[in-house]
């Protein structure tokens, strides 16, 4: 045997001789061709041939340059092989054909055999063949050649001759003239071609990149052998797939050799070139090393012209092998090789054209060879791990829409659909002539074999035959799904199959309810049952259970989405029916006998109006017309739409032969479920139809006992269709449904042939459709909505809800996400009682992830269904206190959306209160709350061209309602919210951080709110004054109070906002008080003016004097709440604006003199009755004098206005005197006044007498709890005031110059080192005394706490 080295050494010598011989033969051939054309040319004869349509231009020749390129570097194929890169995405399929015709009369040949033999194509083919025979005349073609041996050179046809032969054979095949070539010549030629195919069967041009020149020369020689074998294979396939060929040309050896060659070159040349996964690394010991994904990520485009030419010819051969399967029955060995050959390309990247050809091949094998179906499925399932996974190669099969699916999905769907292949002779049983009569596409022998097989099938009962075919498809689908799904949960698999399975399910959802993919619905229906079994089985792997549940959620969401879209479907369907009827009546001409046309242009069977819905040939419908069949509108509509859809599929099957399988699948499906579907329309539950039908099902069950999976599928289907017993159902209804089902079955049998029955004397059969693809898809969806799968949503939803009580957290979480997908498809599902119970249970789940998923589910879609908002509000709002941070965040976002999208919802104030209370939550939630209210309240309202008063008033009402709702719990939360928005600190621990000016948008929004609040107060006041009912003013007053409280909150944070409204607010100090609400309102107004008036520029004297007058009156007349607020207001006005200390002196003297007199009276006679009478006034005087000393510094000479210098000490001495009083109530008010005094005069806190007093009050067991509490309150109030002052002082120091800051820092460092003392140098150096004070009283405080704990 010659080695590669020896061949390389003689290569240069051999190639030189071959080139010289080639040039000579080309010249001779060209000269002979010119001479032959000149002799044969006859202009009249040529024109005659052209008119007959039997002449084709045969001047398409490959010139010398093309052949030279082919020899030098592997030129592209002459049949259009111009590919220079990996295949682009396949074009979108379009089904635009509207009408097809077929001749019924014997078709006349375009040219006679003699005329065909005179054509230049035939003569050139004959000359090439003759030359090949001359060169091999002395050879024994029957001589055996060892399988591994080299083919002798004398058997090999020169490359240029084989190229000509391939081209001419293709032209001869297109002319339909291959059959006139004598069979013995073709047999001899095929034997020679077999030797040439063998020569290139076991060689591959793939070499390492770093090989030397000898290897490259070797590759050229190998490529020449491969291309020779390629052309020989194409020529052999062209011959055997031509029309009307003799059985003698189907040589098994040649077919097998072509299959071997194609399989070897694909596996060893094409796949490694286009997909790196199949490339063997010679430097690695095991070859396939590394990740498939990583290898494919670095895939480069194929640029080798020889490889590209070989690829294009190989996928052409694969397509011809698919055609050969239609013509000739092959041996099992060849079919096995074809199966492997056809399955391989689906798991290779960048070979989409080859995959389309392989799709046809595998479908033909699957439909024709039943015994090989299981092997094919096993081969597909075993190879799924090698599926392309890159984005550009994942989904390469283009649907009619703008969607793509995987080639594997298209393969599986077509394999299932091709199983339901119904013999056209079934239509004869219904009285219709077979449409395949006169068809001469296949060979006579093949037709005879097919007829014998169909006769054997027709001997069976027609119900058994049709149902058996469809149930075989069900069994095939079940087997594939069960194995594929099992792989996703198998721990022994190295590859994760879950993404692959999810991609497959997504493809099924993309193709479901599309007219060309009816098997998608079957697969999804079976898949739903399998998924329920998997995730309900607690013994299954957790990953499998979770993935199964996820897939079921996707399927359920798709079902719900289709159900929602189909609600408006009926009107569109009616419009389509009306349009089709009008088109049929308009476009169909009258027949020769004057009878009206049928729906497809043929003779009408009856003259009744309903005949358009179910036309039958007259001679075959006698039995159908004997008895009146029951009918109704829905049944007539269904049959009409079925007929229209089947006609559309038949018309467009010319561009897509797989549509014929889809037609038969639809027919089998509708036939099998005719009774159950009609019964569901009539009643709902399904009874057993009849004894005859039940018996036929029993027969089918007995025949399928061996196949367990198929039996299981059938039983499930029967359980699904089964309902009440016959005895429980009205017998008349059963009889009516049975008759309607028989009517539909007879109709469906007549639609098995693609063409309708022809009328007598007609010369053509015409089939046309009046719908486009969109209408066909709509009809498919409408018909599918009547089937069990479209009505299985309730069952799937119940199964998902059932696992919410599972112990596995992953399953419960995934179940909630599945419910989210379902609700996304139709938010109306939230209204279901079972859904509400399931969600409520998940809200209380102990897993944070489950609770978060439940909250997310409701929050996304509750706004689109306001009617369910009340149902779910309590559930959602309760979760704002959830222990999970993520849950609280999600709840806050949902509540915010409710406030924005449903402004009329009555619970909005409560929602805002709940959110505001989270202002002190962890930092992330605090920031979220700020963002929420920033968007809701503190975003400016549109002002141009006009202010949006309605939105602004709604916002203001919400704010005031929140304030009202907080009246019991306090407004601290709201105040903290405003403070955090106006005065944020980047570092909350750094009190010296200088607060920047708030954003202008925030200030503008607050200004709008404040202005609107003031206007709203005035409006409410006018409405309250004009109202007659007694309770109306009280309600109005409460609203006004809420507005004033809101203004006070804004004044505490940004008093500048109310400067313009101070004059408007002043009259409310004179508000007539009738209830406690009125007193509260006066206090709030006074507090507001206290903050605002000092900021006014040049306020009028009248305004200020009126304020002072009102404040003094209120102090003298009203209770403690008003006194506190008015004294604070008076202190603010006098200390900062008017400096009217004489007024303060008069007020002070009045109360101080009373206290002194009371003291003297008590000293003279403690039992004096006047003391008890004057005690209320005395308590008022104590309270007022304490507040006066708190708000005014009487140690300042300007403030005293002539009072004695030690007036403060006198007051303190008087107060300490009353602390020894036996009256506990009197002591309590005196202690309260002492606390007020010490707030301003801090040095008193460090005095011995006050310290001893506080120690005694906190430590003596005999002291009442009321006094102890007030003592602690005094200390607390003092510390709070001191803290506020220290913060202000620190901020003032931080704003000074850098030198002063350094000095302050130095002082702070020293004081911190000492542990006590001032933090900064200031006019009040004792500002750190509170720290010392707390240190001294800490022991007393702890002792008091221990006593309180033990005593109470």
Automatic annotation (TrEMBL):
Biased composition (Polar residues): 597-609
Name of the protein this chain belongs to: Nipped-B protein
Compositionally biased tracts (Basic residues): 17-33, 694-704
Pfam families tied to this protein: Cohesin_HEAT (PF12765)
Region (Disordered): 1-97, 433-454, 584-636, 681-727
Xref: InterPro entries: ARM-like, ARM-type_fold, Cohesin_HEAT, Scc2/Nipped-B
Top-rank taxon, per record: Eukaryota
Compositional bias of kind Basic and acidic residues: 442-454, 619-630
Entry's Gene Ontology molecular function annotations: chromatin binding; cohesin loader activity
GO terms, biological process: chromatin looping; establishment of mitotic sister chromatid cohesion; establishment of protein localization to chromatin; regulation of gene expression; replication-born double-strand break repair via sister chromatid exchange
GO cellular component, one term: Scc2-Scc4 cohesin loading complex
Biased composition (Acidic residues): 56-74, 708-721
